[in-house]
Structure to design on (390 residues):
C-alpha cells in the first residue's frame, strides 16, 4: 500500500526559465544507513532514485531542464538547481504488515548565472509501506525509498512553482 | 533445522496420542517460527510539538533590516524528555528553539542552516567591515546536523526518537516578505561542567544579494 502526500500539480504554473540541474556522481551515489545490530540496520539508497526522478519531475515546471554534473557546466542556464540530501528518517512498526513511514529531507540551492543564491529551501518527501518480514523486508525497503524520493521530487517542484523569488526571475 | 523442515514437522506431528512433551514442543516451535518472521519493532511514541511564539517575544532576540530572530534554550531535563524522550544535556548538547520572522514588505531573506555557528560568548568578534565576509573573525564551529548525533551514537537508536529529532530540526529556507520559520538547533555544550554563555551567529543573505549580514545572539 502506498500513501503519498497530495501536491499541487505544477503543470499550470510553469516557470519560463532555462534550468541546469546539478546532479553530481556523489549525489547520485548517496546512501544513508540507519540502525544498528540491536535493531535493524538499513541502507537507504536515495541518490540513485533521485537522479532518475528529479529531472523528469522538474521538466514539467521549467521551460527546460538540463542535467549537468557540475555547477561550472551549467552553460547559459538562467537558474542553477543544486540538490543535497540532508537526512532520512524511517520508523519501525509493530508487525510485518503494519505500515511504516519514511521521510526524506532534500535541500535545494538555486543560483542565478552570476552565482548568487536566489532561493534556498528544504523539502520533505514522505511515503508509507509495510514493514515486511524476513522475506519481504528488502523489497518493501526499496519501495518505500522509491516512493519517498519521488514525493520529495514532487514537493520540490511544488515549492519551486509557488516561490515568489523564482517567479521574479521570469519578469 | 531448515524452516521447511520445521513446517513439515509441525504439520505432520501426530496429535492424537502424542505425548504432552511433543505437543509442548510443537507449540514452542510454532511460536519461534512466528516470531522469527517478524522483525524487531518498537512501540509507537508520540512527541508533542514545541509551542511557537513571535520572534520578538523571546527573551533572547535580535533584529536587522526587518528580520527578527528569537531563540530559547531548552535546558530543563524534564522538558527535554517531554519533547525529545531523551535528556540531551548529559550527552553534551542543548536544544535551542529558533524562530525567524521576516517583517519586511519587499525583501526575501535566505537562511542557510549550514552557515550558523556557535561558540563561547567571550570569543573575540570584530565588527564586520562593509564588504568583508561576515563570520570570518568568530572562532566558532558550525552547528552539527542532527544526523551527526546518530552517527556518533549519542542518541537512542530508537527510530522514533531519531525521527523526531530530524522532524524538529531547523532547516534551510527562504523567508518571503511576511513569512516565518522555526525549528531546533542542537548546540554542543560541556558535558560535566556548568554551561558558559553561548554565542550563536546567524548569517542571513538577501535573496539575490552577494554578502550576508549577521545576527548575533548570546544566551
Amino acid at each position: 500500500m502506498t500513501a503519498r502526500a497530495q501536491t499541487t500539480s505544477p503543470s499550470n504554473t510553469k516557470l519560463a526559465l532555462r534550468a541546469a540541474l546539478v546532479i553530481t556522481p556523489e549525489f547520485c551515489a548517496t546512501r544513508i544507513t540507519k540502525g544498528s545490530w540491536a535493531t535493524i540496520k538499513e541502507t537507504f539508497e536515495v541518490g540513485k532514485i533521485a537522479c532518475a526522478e528529479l529531472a523528469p519531475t522538474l521538466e514539467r515546471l521549467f521551460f527546460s531542464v538540463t542535467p549537468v554534473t557540475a555547477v561550472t557546466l551549467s552553460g547559459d542556464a538562467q537558474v542553477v538547481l543544486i540538490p543535497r540530501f540532508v537526512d532520512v528518517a524511517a520508523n519501525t512498526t509493530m508487525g510485518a504488515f503494519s505500515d511504516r513511514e519514511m521521510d526524506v529531507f532534500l535541500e535545494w540551492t538555486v543560483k542565478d548565472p552570476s552565482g548568487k543564491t536566489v532561493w534556498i529551501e528544504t523539502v520533505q518527501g514522505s511515503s508509507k509501506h509495510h514493514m515486511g518480514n524476513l522475506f519481504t523486508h528488502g523489497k518493501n525497503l526499496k519501495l518505500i525509498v522509491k516512493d519517498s524520493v519521488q514525493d520529495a521530487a514532487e514537493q520540490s517542484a511544488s515549492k519551486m512553482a509557488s516561490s515568489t523569488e523564482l517567479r521574479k526571475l521570469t519578469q | 533445522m531448515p524452516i521447511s523442515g520445521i513446517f513439515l514437522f509441525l504439520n505432520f506431528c501426530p496429535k492424537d496420542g502424542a505425548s504432552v512433551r511433543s505437543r509442548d514442543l510443537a507449540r514452542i516451535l510454532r511460536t519461534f517460527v512466528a516470531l522469527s518472521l517478524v522483525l524487531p519493532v518498537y512501540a509507537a511514541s508520540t512527541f508533542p510539538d514545541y509551542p511557537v511564539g513571535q520572534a520578538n517575544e523571546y527573551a533572547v532576540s535580535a533584529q536587522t533590516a526587518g528580520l527578527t530572530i528569537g531563540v530559547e534554550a531548552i535546558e530543563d531535563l524534564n522538558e527535554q524528555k517531554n519533547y525529545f524522550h531523551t535528556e540531551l544535556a548529559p550527552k553534551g548538547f542543548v536544544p535551542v528553539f529558533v524562530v525567524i520572522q521576516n517583517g519586511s514588505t519587499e525583501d526575501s531573506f535566505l537562511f542557510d542552516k549550514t552557515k550558523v555557528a556557535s561558540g563561547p560568548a567571550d570569543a573575540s568578534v570584530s565588527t564586520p567591515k562593509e564588504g568583508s565576509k561576515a563570520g570570518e573573525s568568530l572562532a566558532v564551529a558550525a552547528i552539527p546536523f542532527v544526523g551527526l548525533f546518530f552517527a556518533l551514537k549519542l542518541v537512542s537508536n530508537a527510530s522514533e526518537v531519531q525521527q523526531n529529532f530530524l522532524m524538529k530540526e531547523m532547516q534551510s529556507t527562504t523567508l518571503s516578505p511576511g513569512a516565518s520559520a522555526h525549528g531546533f538547533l542542537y548546540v554542543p555544550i560541556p558535558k560535566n561542567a556548568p554551561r558558559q554563555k553561548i554565542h550563536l551567529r546567524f548569517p542571513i543573505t538577501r535573496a539575490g544579494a552577494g554578502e550576508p549580514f549577521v545576527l548575533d545572539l548570546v544566551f
